[in-house]
UniProtKB/TrEMBL annotation:
This is Carbohydrate family 9 binding domain-like. Residues 52-229 form the Carbohydrate-binding domain. It comes from Pontibacter ummariensis. GO terms for biological process: carbohydrate catabolic process. GO terms for molecular function: carbohydrate binding; hydrolase activity, hydrolyzing O-glycosyl compounds.
Length: 835
């Protein structure tokens, strides 16, 4: 390990060197510290609402107070803007109105690439942030680009959520060398308390893409922890009330599918067709001025993006991204603490059949659905005037059945998923100084004899008055209720650190008991562990030398088993990344495991472990300037093990080409190569007389994976788009030798093992989506999908031969059309009263 250790130490030296950069650079950094007082803007009440046309020609705009003198946040935090921004705010009994003028030097300097909703691309934009409860933790964000593309997001202590969508109005226009943005934000789109006079947190942001500069009205210091705690104030809002918030979004959909199936009596592959026409309804109701009920009845998720499936040879399940709108929008409160993994709802049945086990019993599996069907979902969420956020999420999943056939050809159904209710309840109290305390409960109730589950967790962040130091923690108790017993498990994490400034650090202690299991409604890969972690960061926020910024970090993690209390792992890690003055960003990272560690999960049998060899991992990445028509992202890493010739080399290349402001393509190529990889192959029980011995077989294998993804979009206008995503993933595993795992975690050669575990895996998906927002909150989508998923034991050795075989394999094809129409009670009432 001398060479790997030297390489890791060399990287460590570079990181330490970045901590000790010349005093001149640090001195310059200190000289450029900026301190600005908190700003305040007064809104002007109007009797007649302005027309939202991107032209601030109504006289009332000239009477409003002006917010200007924006302050740069990136790439150089602190200086005032040189091209002024002017913002005014009006309000009436219905909405808040924002008018902004962005002065520039020429129209050519105003970049305005078209994109889909919530997709910025290469463009300028203007945004407004509203902390309506003034708790300095939670906020709403509304944005528009010069091309009129809308974006909106929710902000919490855990970050920003771009999946949240509201119904509001905006317009943007070019005027000479300037561009103008005009917003109408109805009170029905936001939440606020009931007070005679409101004081809200307020900030504005302008992005000037030609120079890659971002500006805020109230200074946002990147060295300070938090975002909403760095807003200014909006005053002057008097006698406004939250309206009756009631909207219905009915939908109708048509769905046609053609999919392969295995015919009886060796008849080969046949195809079935399924045509379905249906409908459903989404309801949004304001229970009071702060709380909202969201409900979906008979949801249709047929149009969501296809999952990125991969060959999974490891001991843990694959985690998928959430693409279903109901589970993405407005769920930021339910995701606090990471106790909620929404893909459990509608995922694989809990009693999904083991096909080989059923065949061993003499049954043929005719149908074995891999997903469950959600009947309805409900969300209630809001925040009181005292800063208490309350959220209740509930979903009901229908029974699911597999179809089996016995040796005499008789078919019958076997339940794989009982009727199941999922529930998440959250209480989140905002405190001063960017602090909070949150209580979370997740619960799963299943009809019949299948066990139920419950988890109760709490998390907190308590910062000092200056928001420089914070104590953080998370604790949880998991429970599984069986017919004759209850399984309890616990988890906790406690940490303390410096969270603001150039130099930051964090110390943490984590314990996960051997019985802690949140996976009925959450996701956790490993438990039975206790660990100590320390990390240090030193960041340069001001430009120096050839860099605009630089972020460095060093850390170590030491872990032991919870039961028994034995050593498990030691990891040293570090990273350095920054952005150069030409806006190319780059980074380096390393991981080092300098001693043999213990892998208790790869053997797949409780009580066994594999003695994992010492290893190191070095890598880096580069991302070029996205303003250019052609940009490139590259990443690679190399990992070497002190075991045979075991090593891994992965790389990723992704060029992106912007043809014009409407058409863009992104291609991604990834290659993962594991040579002499060691992993689990199979296990069995060997009987000798009255003695039974557990046998676990490991294999030495080469695993090569290739992923090709092409994404493209053509944007007709700010409401209509056509997008394409095609992905081919190919992975092959070729086993060269087999071993038997000993109770001491070592491998003994097993030359007489006659198993074959070679795998050739292909996943091919094409998603073509046409989307048209024909009215506020109303949309027509047309989606065509094509998919191949195949796993066989005969391995192809050439990519194009494998691709040809994949494309000629039986494919599933779907075509769907969906129409949503947004109906707002107040707008409908007003329309009826006029008629």
């Amino acid at each position: 390990m001398k060479d790997p250790l030297c390489l890791a130490l060399a990287t460590l030296f570079l990181l330490i060197l970045s901590f000790l950069l010349p005093s001149q650079a640090i001195g310059q950094d200190k000289k450029k510290e900026y301190k600005y007082p908190q700003k305040q803007l007064k809104a002007l009440r109007v009797q007649e609402a302005p027309q939202i046309d991107g032209v601030l020609d109504e006289a009332v705009w000239q009477q409003a107070q002006i917010a200007t003198d924006f302050i740069q946040n990136r790439p150089t935090p602190g200086p005032l803007e040189t091209h002024p921004t002017e913002v005014r705010i009006l309000y009436d009994d219905e909405a808040l109105y924002v008018g902004a003028i962005m002065h520039d030097v020429a129209q050519d300097s105003i970049l305005r690439q078209l994109g889909q909703r919530d997709d910025l691309g290469n463009t300028d934009f203007f945004g407004v942030f509203l902390d309506t409860y003034n708790d300095q933790l939670n906020a709403f964000g509304f944005f528009v680009t010069p091309a009129g593309v809308q974006l909106d997001a929710r902000y919490t202590s855990t970050g920003e959520d771009w999946s949240w969508n509201a119904v509001w109005d905006s317009s943007a226009k070019l005027q000479g060398t300037d561009w103008v943005a005009e917003f109408k934000i109805p009170y029905s789109a936001i939440r606020f308390g009931s007070k005679p006079e409101q004081v809200w947190g307020l900030n504005f942001m302008r992005n000037r893409q030609a120079t890659r500069k971002g500006f805020f009205w109230n200074y946002v210091d990147p060295a300070v922890d938090g975002f909403a705690n760095q807003y200014g104030k909006l005053v002057g809002l008097k006698d406004i009330e939250a309206p009756l918030r009631l909207s219905l979004t009915p939908y109708v959909s048509g769905y046609a599918e053609r999919y392969p199936y295995e015919q009886e009596n060796g008849g080969g592959i046949g195809f079935k067709k399924d045509i379905n026409i249906g409908g459903g309804l989404d309801v949004k109701y304001g229970i009071n001025d702060a709380f909202t009920l969201d409900m979906t009845l008979i949801p249709d998720f047929s149009q969501v993006q296809s999952d990125n499936r991969v060959l999974n040879l490891g001991p843990f399940e694959q985690q998928f991204n959430e693409n279903r709108p109901f589970f993405m929008e407005g769920t930021e409160l339910f995701n606090k603490g990471d106790f909620f993994y929404s893909r459990r709802i509608g995922g694989a049945p809990i009693n999904y059949l083991d096909v080989e086990a059923e065949e061993a019993l003499g049954y043929r599996v005719v149908e074995n659905p891999g997903e469950t069907r959600m009947l309805n979902g409900t969300k209630i969420s809001g925040r009181t005037q005292s800063g208490l956020g309350i959220g209740v999420f509930n979903a009901l999943v229908a029974r699911q059945y597999a179809v089996l056939e016995d040796s005499e050809g008789r078919r019958f159904e076997k339940e794989t998923q009982p009727l199941t209710n999922y529930n998440v309840t959250v209480l989140d109290q905002s405190l001063r100084n960017n602090s909070y305390v949150t209580l979370v409960n997740t619960n799963v109730l299943r009809q019949g004899s299948t066990y139920d589950a419950n988890l109760t967790g709490m998390l907190f962040n308590i910062a000092n008055k200056g928001n420089k130091y914070a104590v953080r923690g998370k604790v949880a108790l998991s429970q599984r209720y069986f017919s004759d017993s209850t399984a309890l498990g616990h988890f906790y994490n406690l940490g303390f650190g410096k969270v603001s400034g150039r130099f930051q650090f964090n110390l943490s202690h984590t314990v996960e008991s051997d019985t802690y299991d949140p996976n009925d409604l959450g996701i956790l890969f490993t438990n039975n562990s206790q660990s100590e972690e320390v990390n240090f960061n030193y960041n340069f926020y001001q430009p120096f030398w050839k860099l605009l910024n630089l972020y460095t970090g060093l850390g170590a993690n030491y872990s032991r088993r919870y039961r028994p209390n034995t050593f498990e792992n030691l990891v040293l890690y570090g990273n350095v990344n920054g952005t150069f003055r030409n806006f190319t960003s780059a980074g380096l990272f390393f991981n080092l495991e300098p001693v043999e560690t213990y892998d208790f999960f790869e053997p797949r049998v409780s009580g066994w472990y594999y003695l994992f060899p010492t290893n190191y991992n070095l890598g880096g990445w580069v991302s070029t300037d996205y303003r250019k028509k052609l940009a490139l992202d590259v990443e690679m890493n190399y990992r070497a093990f002190d075991e045979n010739n075991r090593h891994t080399f992965n790389y990723f290349i992704s060029p992106r080409f912007r043809v014009n402001d409407r058409l863009m393509f992104v291609y991604s190529y990834g290659s993962e190569n594991k040579y002499d990889d060691i992993g689990y192959a199979s296990s069995y029980v060997e009987t000798e007389g009255d003695t039974e011995r557990q046998r676990i077989v490991f294999g030495r294998r080469d695993v090569n994976s290739v992923s090709n993804t092409l994404s493209g979009s053509y944007i007709f206008n700010n409401r209509m788009s056509l997008s394409l995503r095609a992905r081919h993933y190919w992975s092959r595993a070729i086993y060269n030798r087999y071993y038997q795992l000993t109770p001491e975690g070592l491998l003994q050669a097993q030359s007489d093992y006659d198993g074959n575990h070679d795998v050739n895996f292909n996943a091919f998906n094409v998603d073509l989506v046409y989307s048209w927002w024909f009215a506020p909150g109303s949309q027509i989508t047309v989606v065509w999908k094509n998919a191949v998923l195949e796993q066989i034991g005969e391995v192809d050795t050439h990519y194009f031969e494998n691709l040809s075989h994949t494309l000629s394999s039986p494919q599933s094809t779907t075509f769907s059309v969906k129409v949503l129409y947004y109906l707002d009670y107040l707008a409908l009432k007003k329309s009826l009263s006029k008629s």
